[in-house]
Amino acid sequence: MVQSSTLAIPDTGKVPGHVAIIMDGNGRWAVARHLPRTAGHAKGVQAVRRIVEACGRQGVQHLTLFAFSSENWRRPIEEVTLLMRLFMQALDREVGRLHEQGVCLHVIGDLGAFDASLRQRIKAAETLTRGNTRMHLTIAANYGGRWDILNAMRTVLAERPELAADPSQLDEAALLPHLAMPWAPEPDLFIRTGGEQRISNFMIWQLAYTELYFTDAYWPDFDRDELQRAFDWYASRERRFGRTSAQLKNSP
Length: 252
Description:
Blueprint: E1 18-22, H1 26-32, H2 37-58, E2 62-69, H3 77-100, E3 103-108, H4 116-129, E4 135-143, H5 145-159, H6 162-165, H7 172-175, E5 189-192, E6 211-214, H8 224-235, H9 245-250
Parallel strand pairs: 1-2, 1-5, 2-4, 3-4, 5-6
């Protein structure tokens, strides 16, 4: 199990080991081109392929993409229906390529809300790629950070009911294995495209010490150059994890 950054100082490098992205701006990209919003989502799938490949070449070990939040059900039914269809099509078309590239695919979130055919595709894709180690690609679908924490708490209390009588025994070590991504270190770099500057209920536990990068580029326009700009910005950051700059300079 990966340690929490509030309990121990993680190893870091100039290239982020774990990148988390909110892929925002698909609809606005389409509207700006007088296209239906759905066209932007279709174009966004191409950007996913491009960034997965670019991160793999850079040596990123974990890439987490926020594809569909638990709040996105509030969108028009036509848009939600198309997003579900695009998700199924992407699984059908891309999983073979991911497997060939050595990518291990995970899907996190409250998957019970999806229909059976989509859940079957997810399970098949995860099973096929389970042994791959070059990079872990995680898709967050019907995911929310608050759901993640609540779900972990419910699981802990179900397994250890004595904690309800003595909450002082509950600590991070007890909770961490039950969060949605116990196999992955906390993100080093968070990227949000589309100009908005908030995390929108995404990995709110895991982003405690993550560097936050915001860009005006819409997701369909986010390419290798945009990714490199984010990585260059990250490389310039001083990651102190509660320490002073002087301590960093004197550390081995």
